[in-house]
Every structure is written in structure tokens, then in C-alpha cells.
Amino acid sequence: MTAELPAIDPEYVEARRVLLDALEALGPHRKAVVLVGAQAIYLRVGEGNLQVAPFTSDGDLALNPDALADEPLLAEALLSAGFSLAVKPGTWARHAVQIDLMVPSAIGGPGRRSARLGPHGAEVARKAKGLEAALFDFDLLSLAALDPADARTITVAVAGLSALLVAKLHKLAEREGTPARWSAKDGLDILRILQGAELAQLGATLVGLEAHPVAGAVTSEARPLLRRLFATPSGHGADMAVRASLGLEEPATIRSACAALATELLRVWEANPAEAPSQPAPLG
Q: What is the pLDDT of residue 281?
């Protein structure tokens, strides 16, 4: 794993601090939590080969409803720690940093947006398609503060690169037709995954996830998304990666890297190894 660089944007330092605050507040519910999104990606691959420093101003946590305890109530725990429900459902804020609590759509209950979490209600978390794989492809890792004055380290489940790739591809595709919702950094985050991963292992894990009863459908859907968004230099994902690195990286180099790495991963993925890798036990 590549170490995070010492020169870190203050907003990213604050985002990590508030993420640790949220994990502390969740207390006994942490067994139901998987870190996803940009902070998970940077924890796994760092800066990689890009001149663009890792940066995010928020945090994303996936929840497994089956592993949640009935008490304390999630909302009460977060409110007591100084968080507020900034956007219903599922976006909690503290000191201008937002923490999104999300449940994979396949297990989030009825309805379009709100995750039904029993005694915790329907506003504390929202449903998000593409996170299903994160509940099965993860490792327990140490998440440390980025501020040298903050000595905290928390052990938390962190989604694997395969699960993070699937989630980011679904997010990019969902927003592709709505320019107002584009986040160019999502394209660059996927390039970081492709650059930082061992593609043979990444492809083998994706094959295994495709066979999973919960994660299989979204993983299978991610394969044509990877092809369309990244496997050609003019794909929307490559466009986003170029936007996010403009002025720091040559656009042609970024486009070429997206296409070459996505094509190689697809080749490995579609080779369909005879024996899929074993999957870890579900979270919780």
C-alpha cells in the first residue's frame, strides 16, 4: 500500500477527522460499517502515479442492516456527537464535512431512496446501487487521522478495490446524463484504482463477486459500464479523469491510460477463471 503524502489539503485532513468522529459515534454499530468512497480508495492506493494529490471533503459509509444493533439508535448517537441530518435521507454533517450513510439498494427495503432500518427509521441512511459488493469484499484496516496532532486510529472494514470499482462505475453511470451532478474526481478515482491494483487479482475477485447471490447483479452490470465509460479514450469516464487532472496531467496520457488499463482488466475479467476466489464472510 502506498503511504499517503505529508503535504495534504487541509479540507482532506478535516474530512478524515470528521470521519473518525462519526466512526467513534457509531460505537457498537461499527461492526455493520464498511468504509467506501474516496477515503477508502486513497487508503488502499494513495497517490499512485498521478500528479494530482488525493483529495476529498467528505466521507462515505456503507451499512449492513443485518449487522446493526437495535440500540443505541443511529440518529441519537450521531446527534449526540454533534452531527446534524443535513440532507434527508442519510447525509450527516459536522463542521461543513458531510458523512453519507448508505445501504446497498438490494437490501435497503422498499422505496426509492430511504433505507428501511427497523427501529432506526427511514431517514438515517439512503439506498445506493452498486455498494452490494462492499459488504463481501473488504478487509479490516487501521484508519488514522491525517493531522499529526490527532493520535486516533480506528480499525474499520474497508471495501476492497473490486467493490470500490463497482460502486464508482455505478455512480458515474447514474450521473452521466445529468451534468449538474458530475463529479470529475470520480473518473480520476477509478483511474487510481486501475493504476494501483494488480489487474489479474482485481479481475479474479470481480469474477467471484459476479457469482455472489447479493453482489452478483451489480457486479455483472459494472462490466459493460467499464467498457463504455473507460475502455475507449473518448469515454465519459476518461473525460471526467481528464477534467479532474487538467493542468497537472497531459489529457492524451490520461485518456490512453484509462483505455489501456480498462481494456486489460476486461480481458482478465472475461477470461472467467475456472475457480473463483473464495469470498470473505459477510460483514457483521
A: 62
